[in-house]
Structures
1.
Amino acid sequence: MRFARFLKRLELKLLTYRDGFQVASARKDKFGEEFVERTAIIIIHPNTAKTFGFKDGQIIRVKTKDRSIRVRLTLDEIAPENCALMPKSIYTNYLNTSTVVVEAEEGEVTKPQDILNELVIT
Amino acid sequence: MICTGCSCLCDDVVVDEKVRHACRIGASLILNRNVARAEPMVDGRKTDLDSAIESAIELLKDSNKVLIYGLNYSTLEAQRIAMKLAKKIDAYLDNGLRYDLAEKLLDGEVRIATLEDVRDYAYVMMFWMFDAHNEMPRLMSRTYYARGKKRQRGYEEDRFLVVVDVRRSHTAMLAKKNAIFIEYDDELIKEFETAIRGGLARREVLKVVGELKKSDFNVIFTREFLPFANEFGYIVPTIPQTNAMGFYKVLREEGGKIGRLEELDIDTILVVGDDPLNDLPLNAIPNFIVIDPKVSFTSKIARVVIPSAISGLECGGTMLRCDLVEMKLKPPFKSEIDDVEILKRILRGL
């Protein structure tokens, strides 16, 4: 697992965007499963994923200098090849950066409540 | 009813045993109105509405520097009271969005087109860094795809679509026949300025400028001010937050101090219908008073939570559509308390 993590590590420019389905899920319940499913994602271009050995649907750790979250990877051509896309949300707000490091990870995606706990403690 | 899912404020939405004509954002708002409703809270404990309002008043009285944040989803009437409240306690105001385009529009420096005019007359439609498909899902069906008085032959013949973005958004993917996608870079604005005045620019820009000559009614959908807007044609401001344009207009009429949270040493934020934890990078967590119909990230850590009504769905009033057309809301449901009533009570108590 740790060896795989070293192989699958990539620095990308982070772009935020508005996704209609994600906005709709936020209008329903910001702590609901549907919201997390639509929001805790990172989108990269299929060619970038192929080059660096990432797979659609796998869990990814997105890191900045001092913060990190776990999200699910989605492959889609709406992302430019040198960038990662994330819906504008508490996740991107927490990262607060224009460049991120993504690496393969295991486990569950980070929940909004985990970010809130982190924000309140810090 | 008039849907308050985004600033399109679609007036053909029907709510009976089903929700008809609404987009996914509007339908979610209406169908899930009873999900995740906020409850009156003080310091993490449930209380009654009167106590929550009383605690908000006390907290505001004890604060040195207050910011009133949000108001993008509130009616003009609520915005007006919030601005009176700001004046009374010398608070700053912020809706979390940019002001440059709104100021130019309200000053009359940029020509604005209504959605109906765009539908009836527009030929070139440029979506500038704006993914209509996701941000205001019915905007294109009300303008680009719709047949209008002078545009009877449909979008493939009677419209020319331009999508400018840093990436191939879902709207950009529609740029096929009689359409063009231009990848945004820092030189693009200058190139449009030059090309419109007859100078040289990249091939795609020259193509768009060539198309402009085929009609005297062309339009840009944008949320930023573009220096070539008047030479291009008209503007439709595309801030998706339901009544953001109303905020700017009321702010202009009532006057008020604009302050950015990140630039000020704020100790209390009165949040009305918004969620700063979703939008603003916060280095320190101040005291939050949240007025919101639903549970939000900010309401989870707020000192005081005051539940309200969903504007347009449970309470009436007036809002400004994205193109500054005033719309009278027709709520299908009723609520005993709304933003207007809550803000009035806070104002009286201060």
2.
Amino acid sequence: MSARRIVVLGAGTGGTMIANRLRRRLSPEEAEIHVVDRDDEHVYQPGLLFVPFGLAHLDEIVRPRRRQLRRGIEFHEHEVEAVSLERDEVQLADGTLLPYDVLVVASGVRLQPEETEGLEGPAWNERVFTFYEPASADALHGALERFERGRLVVNLVDMPIKCPVAPLEFAFLADWYLRERGVRERIELVYATPLDGAFTKPVASRHLAGLLGEKGIDLVTEFNAGEVDGDAGKLVGYDGRELDYDLLVTVPLHGGAAYVERSPGLGDALGFVPTDRHTLQTAAKPNVFALGDATDLPISKAGSVTHFEAEILTENVVRFLEERKLLAGYDGHANCFIETGFGKALMIDFNYETEPLPGRFPTAAGPLPLLRESRLNHLGKLLFQSVYWHALLPGRELPGLGPTMPTAGKKLAATT
Amino acid sequence: MTTALYADTPVEVDAEGFLTDPEQWDEQIAERIAEENGIPELSDRHWLVVRFMRDRYLTTGNAPSIRALGKESGVPVKELYALFPKGPAKLAAKIGGIPKPRGCI
């Protein structure tokens, strides 16, 4: 039998992992693997959080995409024009056609600041920033260094966003950073969210709201930002409420990659790809799969989710090629460190059914405390970058970190 | 779960007042729920949004988010907030007799 062709759209966390895992699993005689991305810059996204505080620099967190891919994977540096589900074919912007037997959509999300009136006005990268994008994260570092007094508002425009805890972490770190600089008492810190609490999940939400309170950060809930008046320094909600700011750190609206919208039948209204929550096969067509931020799954858009999905997806692409029944193996497992400032972090671990609970998380190096601040969690977060480049992306197994959520160590009956 | 009385009809609702069985819903119940939530009269634009939410839930099993609602219902987000102050998706779901939209995570 001649080699089948697998095309992966996106060479970020998900695309790189899935291509490398499939390359290890399938011989060149069994499958050709093609990966498409529009540029050659792989950003270690968790690192962006630290850039505004001078704790990370762009040159440390950006590496060439190509170099993260195993030998025997063909990389195409082009924008995707569209996917034709009918012809099983991807059209690239330069006109190249890539027919496929299996397609994996791993193109993540696109920030859409243009969807919020006034957000990209003259104050953009002057008084209004986002750390979700490398250039703006870098510009924000300069602004924070010069910030002496006034009001800093952190706002996420609407869900879904990548790493839903990141804006909270930003607020915690800003508190720490401004205290270190000795200017915190002259600066008011406000966290404005469209959610009805600090976070989406009740138990973690109460813990995190408590932390905001302890650090003197005002929490404004059910705030749906509709408009930014850059000159006046006003964030205006759809309900008419106004928040004055001297510095606005926003998390803009997120949507799927632009080509998803140009590909009939592939995505939903926001450009996310409807995907089976356990097998990761898309609703678009049986030979199309998706993982990571690109999907519409009801779980965090986060690297840990993508990692756990990649294990199941590798298995299912192989099963699909062999015409075997797919494994309904993904349970929504997500796991993240939440940086809380002063060299500490929390950890949360959850899935579709179980919300983040207190307890301990078992790891090869010993248990880590869940939902409780500790130095160990902070060190875990720092060490993770090396694990990311050297174990996660190449597709090596990480002992103790699997696609299903461990229940050992969790206080499952806990309600506080 | 508790029972609420709307337009003389008993319906099952959850702790926040969302109907748990969309089949128990009718237009009079919708009008009563709207009244209770500060909308004395449902205009054609209100109905367009409520019906869109309800149809979408009944066909897909999910109620759209406010952004999807703004893109697909033909009613811009700004107007949605004018029609259903505070939380358009939540309130339209409640009036439409479907469960509370699941917030994203």
3.
Amino acid sequence: MTAIGRLLDDFSRRRRPLRSLGASGQLGYGIPTPAFEAGLARAPDMIGVDMGSIDIGPAYLGGGKMAPTRVGAKRDLRKVLRAARRLDIPLIVGSAGSAGARPHLDQTLDIIREIAREDGLAFRMAVVGSDVPRAEIKQAIAAGRVRPMDTMPPLTEADVDAASHIVGQLGLEAFRRALEADVDVVVLGRACDTGIFASIPAMLGFPAGISMHMAKIIECASLCCVPGGRDTILGILDDDGFELESMAPNRAAMPSSVAAHSLYEQADPFDIREPSGRADLRHVTYRALDARRTRVEGATFEPAERDTIKLEGASMIGHRALLLAGAADPRFIARHAEIFAAVSRVVRDLVCEDTAEDYRLGFRLFGVDGVRAWAEPPAQMPREAFVMGECIAPTPERAEEVIRTTKQYLLHHGYEGRLCTAGNLAFPFTPPEVMIGAAYRFNVFHLMDVDDMARLFPVEVETVR
Amino acid sequence: MRLDSIAKVIRSKNAGPCLLTLDVMLPDEATFAYVAERIGALRRQVAQRYGRSENEVAVLPFAPALAVKITLPREIVSGDVGDRDVYGAQQHAPLLDIEL
């Protein structure tokens, strides 16, 4: 019998609270062993891990690369996979490989198969890819079934073609279809983090609002605690609410900290959205069970009028090269804006003699405007500042040519009132020019109506051994 | 009163790649009530400091966490050309010295 089969069988004989272990909110960056082992000792019914987020920016989705290292991802996957097989409970992995597109999913599956081979594990695994075929999106655009999210412009066919990968955020129905394939391990491409922990409750008939609320909290492990952290958390769900307990003894899930977690990375703290509907937190209560445990009740669920999927896509905009240097001359720092503008012109005249101005060159002066484009200059200029030059060009060679030329002319630029005529910059090392590879931007962040999720995102089942 | 003298947390983060969300958490009910009563003034000052019109700035008291949530559009979509803070985790600084 598979792990999910065993769980369903157990519940069919005796209805009881469901015990879910949120092992890690960002798999690949380390799962502290003491808390994880403490969680395993509490007879959990499942282990869930999330690998993804859109917060990490467009480069991973665009470039098909995982955010953590392969070594880090393998170490953490091994930990959760071995534990789940040891206890014979389902393991659910969401947003495989950070961004969840096919290359990320394939890298994750490759690691899982490698672990199984090396450690002699055998299991049934269901996989759901989240890549959305371009033709489907174009049809939906033509039919007026794609809408922008937040401040994005309307989606065009050109955007769809330009994106190197487009994924849809799968919801709990996709997790559920994967589990219904009777498996031990579920791995999804890009997915709503709530689906990881709300899908088994949905199969067992727990109330959707409460389940989704718990899922939204425990997918971040012990972040809802005081002090917040990455340690494993246990969520115990019944028909009226759920209880939270961090598996690290120094972390306390308190009513105030659990409530505050609803604010985290959410525009509306009363609302958790999923393709199938939304959980409403307006009437939720948080009650301390003791100094370290909180009970939560009251979330309700409102089904969506139609099924939608949130699309995410990133397109390449060129290749990025940087110049990294410091400055300590007060005259240079005071006049940095005009110096940067003048050097940009000098560079353009040199590198565009027989080529078009096909690149973008910009500067930040950390200490002044590195982190924010402030409306006003600071009251007092800093004693030192960090100079970052950034070029995005169509080829790596072009970006490098522009940034190396920039380095030379910024170093030696003669500006009015200059005293430091031997050089304007302090290089912490050489070369001070760094090529950091392809640059991407999010060009798709839209909502698409979907009639048949199962057709668009089929479940693939394999036996791993 | 200055916001950073009464809040126990003032933080910023993306809410998706297009929005910035700022949380101001207050230490007790009295302070929360003080801020919640001044939502209009807070919204006005936030709009001005972030260079936005008031109708682009949402300010929402969240009593369960004694917090006020502020959400506004990012100037540049996360990670796009010219962005300075991909995660949006350091965009709270203009809030610190708001007087309420």
